[in-house]
Amino acid sequence: MENPAAASLFANSPAALGAPEAGRLPAPLEGEIRSIYRRSPLYGQRFPLHLEPLGWSCYREIPILTKQEILDRGHTAFFADYAEIERGLQQKKYEYEHTSGSTAQPMTVVMEDGWWNAQLRRAYLAHPQLAQYVDRPYRKAVLAPVGCSSNLCPYEDHPFPHRYFDGTVYLNLSSDPFAFPESEWDRIMRELQALKPEVLEGEPIYLSLLARAAKKRRVRVPSLRTVILTYGKASLQHSRRIAEVFPAAQVDLYGSTEAGYIFVGDAFRDNLRVIDGNAFVELVPWREGLADIYQINVTTRDREAMPLLRYFTGDIVRRAPTGYRILGRERDLHLRPDGAVVSAFEIDAALPDTFSCWHWSLVQVSDNRWDFQYVADAVAPDGLEASVAAALGEGVRVNLFRRKFIQPAASGKFALLKPLPR
After folding, report:
1. What backbone phi and psi angles, to 5 degrees, belong to 325?
2. Per-residue pLDDT reduced to its tens digit, 223-282
3. What are the residues whose beta carbons fall under 8 Å from the beta carbon of 94, sequence distance 6 or more?
4. Of 142, 175, 377, 397, which sits 20 to 30 A from 120 (CA to CA)?
5. pTM
6. Residue 4 counted as domain residue
């Protein structure tokens, strides 16, 4: 039987939680929970808190918040008087964004002015490769999914100077997801060469295809020092293709529009760490019998508008000796009959060394059949089907399809694995 006084597991550093006290929540966590209850009436309606010090058993009784609940209740439920927020929007004290995330309909997110920039600054300070850019001018180019909200990632049809904000140029122009004709790549290459960025940030698949366009045009960007992989899930294939054309340190920055930046680390080094100043990250065992694999519940810190408490982002992580690895969205993970979890990392490991591609997607079409679609300059080598099939489980058959491009979801985002709904 579980000890109700036992502490829940968190991915934060011990310093962020403070000294433990038997049966009690750490003071920083309890203080944030109390602040969230004061700022947002939603939580008191869902689960009232007593005035006595909070114990772990009480914490675990607070209902998990999901994206679907936010959609069902509406973003206005977070505020006692939404008319005040509307006035704040007009006065630029607040801003709102839309994110599709893992839901079929967009979620409205309200932010106080300056919150996102503060999130970004703390994320940069949490990683040595990024800390060098804090509080000094530098040039950055961003290639984000076109479904990203326009205030954070403007892709309107404006000339180059009007997409340049505080040293950052947003390369997206098309409002049609993933519609990059050759003329668009030509334009993007000219802007990269004109900007001479130190930092290139983007969705990994978009950056991989950007690297392909640059390689085709023999374009180099010698000023580049850092590549930030964010907005989506990367494959080692994307990382390698990007590195071939843009040889720079690669940083993995994970977060979401609604929760902010949560993890940062070196790409594909299993050393992701929580950005302690941004969030508390609770680890909940995902499946019985799977060691060190957790779903994450996020509690945001120092947020006034739409603070999140025990918010399930939909992501699953693996704990490693050196840190954490984001396995991906829960819905995008495949469970083999033997109970093993298959993510993009297992598929990367199964791909032969002789294979390289700019993008791939593995789609389950029946219980024992998957289609491996890939974008590459050459036909896949013999044996790839068998290697991928072995990673997916006994009795699985894999068919290969070489594509000119792979269409994303309407949001502009991609899923590397698409198992059938469970």
Report:
1. -125, 130
2. 999 999 998 889 999 999 999 999 999 999 999 989 999 999 999 999 999 999 999 999
3. 85, 88, 110, 111, 112, 113, 305
4. 175
5. 0.93
6. no
